[in-house]
Amino acid sequence: MSNDSSTIHILLAEDDPDDRLLTRRALEKSRLANTIQTVEDGEELMEYLRHEGEYADPESAPRPGLILLDLNMPRMDGREALKKIKSDAELRRIPVIVLTTSEAEQDILQSYDLGVNAFVTKPVTFDDLATALQALGDFWFEIVKLPHERQADA
Q1: 117 neighbors 95 (Cβ within 8 angstroms)
Q2: Which residues have CB under 8 Å from 43's CB, separation 6+?
Q3: HSE (CB half, 13 Å, CA atoms) of 51?
Q4: Is 9-143 a domain of CATH 3.40.50.1980?
Q5: Which segments in the chain show pLDDT lower than 70?
Q6: Were both Cys, which of 11, 71, 113, 142 would link to 78 (CB 3.0–4.6 Å)?
Q7: Which residues contact 59 (CB under 8 A, 6 or more apart)?
Q8: Are 59 and 145 within 8 A, CB to CB?
Q9: CA distances to 10, 97, 99, 103, 141 from 38, in Å
Q10: What is the model's pLDDT at position 43?
Q11: pLDDT reported for residue 9
Q12: What is the 3-state secondary structure of the chain?
Protein backbone atom coordinates (compact mmCIF):
# COMPACT_ATOMS: atom_id res chain seq x y z
CA MET A 1 0.00 0.00 0.00
CA SER A 2 2.98 2.29 0.14
CA ASN A 3 4.07 4.74 -2.51
CA ASP A 4 7.55 4.64 -3.96
CA SER A 5 8.80 7.51 -1.82
CA SER A 6 12.04 7.67 -3.79
CA THR A 7 10.11 9.19 -6.68
CA ILE A 8 8.25 11.84 -4.70
CA HIS A 9 9.52 15.33 -5.24
CA ILE A 10 8.87 17.81 -2.42
CA LEU A 11 8.53 21.53 -3.11
CA LEU A 12 8.94 23.78 -0.08
CA ALA A 13 7.55 27.33 -0.35
CA GLU A 14 9.10 29.27 2.53
CA ASP A 15 10.44 32.82 2.63
CA ASP A 16 12.64 32.51 5.73
CA PRO A 17 16.09 31.10 4.84
CA ASP A 18 16.59 29.71 8.35
CA ASP A 19 13.24 27.91 8.22
CA ARG A 20 14.09 26.54 4.75
CA LEU A 21 17.38 25.19 6.08
CA LEU A 22 15.80 23.72 9.24
CA THR A 23 12.99 22.10 7.27
CA ARG A 24 15.44 20.60 4.77
CA ARG A 25 17.60 19.24 7.59
CA ALA A 26 14.56 17.90 9.44
CA LEU A 27 13.41 16.13 6.27
CA GLU A 28 16.88 14.63 5.90
CA LYS A 29 16.99 13.61 9.58
CA SER A 30 13.62 11.96 9.28
CA ARG A 31 14.89 10.07 6.20
CA LEU A 32 12.54 11.97 3.94
CA ALA A 33 15.37 13.34 1.87
CA ASN A 34 13.51 12.88 -1.36
CA THR A 35 14.29 15.41 -3.97
CA ILE A 36 13.55 18.76 -2.42
CA GLN A 37 13.43 22.14 -4.05
CA THR A 38 12.57 25.45 -2.48
CA VAL A 39 10.91 28.66 -3.59
CA GLU A 40 10.73 31.85 -1.57
CA ASP A 41 7.17 33.11 -2.06
CA GLY A 42 3.83 32.41 -3.69
CA GLU A 43 4.71 34.10 -6.97
CA GLU A 44 7.83 31.99 -7.35
CA LEU A 45 5.79 28.91 -6.40
CA MET A 46 3.28 29.61 -9.19
CA GLU A 47 6.10 30.29 -11.68
CA TYR A 48 7.64 26.94 -10.71
CA LEU A 49 4.36 25.04 -11.04
CA ARG A 50 3.50 26.68 -14.37
CA HIS A 51 7.07 26.28 -15.72
CA GLU A 52 7.52 29.99 -16.27
CA GLY A 53 10.70 32.07 -16.24
CA GLU A 54 13.66 30.29 -14.67
CA TYR A 55 11.48 27.20 -14.20
CA ALA A 56 10.63 26.76 -17.90
CA ASP A 57 12.54 23.48 -18.10
CA PRO A 58 10.37 20.70 -16.58
CA GLU A 59 13.47 18.57 -16.00
CA SER A 60 14.96 21.11 -13.61
CA ALA A 61 11.54 21.93 -12.13
CA PRO A 62 9.73 18.59 -11.92
CA ARG A 63 6.10 18.43 -10.87
CA PRO A 64 6.09 18.07 -7.08
CA GLY A 65 4.39 15.13 -5.42
CA LEU A 66 3.88 17.24 -2.32
CA ILE A 67 4.01 20.95 -1.54
CA LEU A 68 4.94 22.25 1.90
CA LEU A 69 3.53 25.78 2.02
CA ASP A 70 4.20 28.62 4.42
CA LEU A 71 1.27 31.01 4.82
CA ASN A 72 3.04 34.29 5.46
CA MET A 73 5.31 35.12 2.55
CA PRO A 74 6.01 38.33 0.61
CA ARG A 75 4.67 39.18 -2.87
CA MET A 76 2.02 36.40 -2.83
CA ASP A 77 1.21 34.74 0.47
CA GLY A 78 0.43 31.07 0.96
CA ARG A 79 -3.34 31.62 1.07
CA GLU A 80 -3.42 33.21 -2.37
CA ALA A 81 -1.05 30.60 -3.79
CA LEU A 82 -3.19 27.81 -2.29
CA LYS A 83 -6.30 29.34 -3.85
CA LYS A 84 -4.60 29.44 -7.27
CA ILE A 85 -3.30 25.87 -6.97
CA LYS A 86 -6.62 24.38 -5.93
CA SER A 87 -8.57 26.27 -8.62
CA ASP A 88 -6.22 25.15 -11.39
CA ALA A 89 -7.34 21.90 -13.04
CA GLU A 90 -3.73 20.88 -13.74
CA LEU A 91 -2.41 21.60 -10.24
CA ARG A 92 -5.24 20.87 -7.81
CA ARG A 93 -4.38 17.20 -7.32
CA ILE A 94 -0.97 18.03 -5.89
CA PRO A 95 -1.23 17.54 -2.12
CA VAL A 96 -0.52 20.74 -0.21
CA ILE A 97 0.43 20.81 3.45
CA VAL A 98 0.45 24.20 5.15
CA LEU A 99 3.51 24.31 7.39
CA THR A 100 3.38 27.53 9.36
CA THR A 101 3.96 29.15 12.72
CA SER A 102 0.33 30.26 12.80
CA GLU A 103 -2.10 28.65 15.21
CA ALA A 104 -4.87 31.11 14.37
CA GLU A 105 -8.25 29.44 13.91
CA GLN A 106 -8.97 31.81 11.01
CA ASP A 107 -5.86 30.57 9.17
CA ILE A 108 -6.84 26.94 9.78
CA LEU A 109 -10.43 27.45 8.59
CA GLN A 110 -9.41 29.52 5.58
CA SER A 111 -6.75 26.99 4.55
CA TYR A 112 -9.22 24.09 4.63
CA ASP A 113 -11.83 26.22 2.83
CA LEU A 114 -9.24 26.79 0.10
CA GLY A 115 -8.59 23.05 -0.21
CA VAL A 116 -5.44 22.38 1.80
CA ASN A 117 -4.78 18.70 2.47
CA ALA A 118 -3.31 19.24 5.94
CA PHE A 119 -2.49 22.15 8.25
CA VAL A 120 0.54 21.76 10.51
CA THR A 121 1.80 24.31 12.99
CA LYS A 122 5.59 24.23 13.00
CA PRO A 123 6.95 22.81 16.23
CA VAL A 124 9.30 25.11 18.14
CA THR A 125 12.30 22.80 18.44
CA PHE A 126 14.28 21.14 15.65
CA ASP A 127 13.76 17.65 17.10
CA ASP A 128 10.00 18.20 17.28
CA LEU A 129 10.03 19.50 13.69
CA ALA A 130 11.93 16.39 12.56
CA THR A 131 9.45 14.19 14.44
CA ALA A 132 6.49 16.00 12.86
CA LEU A 133 7.97 15.72 9.36
CA GLN A 134 8.69 12.02 9.94
CA ALA A 135 5.02 11.51 10.87
CA LEU A 136 3.94 13.47 7.79
CA GLY A 137 6.26 11.40 5.64
CA ASP A 138 4.97 8.15 7.10
CA PHE A 139 1.42 9.23 6.31
CA TRP A 140 1.92 10.83 2.88
CA PHE A 141 4.56 8.46 1.52
CA GLU A 142 3.67 5.14 3.16
CA ILE A 143 -0.10 5.13 3.76
CA VAL A 144 -1.71 7.55 1.32
CA LYS A 145 -2.00 6.78 -2.36
CA LEU A 146 -0.85 9.79 -4.36
CA PRO A 147 -1.64 10.32 -8.02
CA HIS A 148 1.31 9.77 -10.30
CA GLU A 149 2.11 12.62 -12.63
CA ARG A 150 0.74 10.84 -15.70
CA GLN A 151 -2.50 10.05 -13.90
CA ALA A 152 -2.73 13.61 -12.66
CA ASP A 153 -2.26 14.99 -16.16
CA ALA A 154 -4.82 12.65 -17.72
Answers
A1: yes
A2: 75, 76
A3: 11
A4: no
A5: 1-7, 31-33, 148-154
A6: 71
A7: none
A8: no
A9: 8, 14, 13, 23, 19
A10: 97
A11: 87
A12: CCCCHHHCEEEEECCCHHHHHHHHHHHHHCCCCCEEEEECCHHHHHHHHCCCHHHCCCCCCCCCCEEEECCCCCCCCHHHHHHHHHCCCCCCCCCEEEEECCCCHHHHHHHHHCCCCEEEECCCCHHHHHHHHHHHHHHHHHHCCCCCHHHHHC
Per-residue pLDDT of 17-34, as tens digits, reads 999 998 888 888 776 657
The pLDDT tens digits of the residues spanning 3-21 come to 444 568 899 999 999 999 9
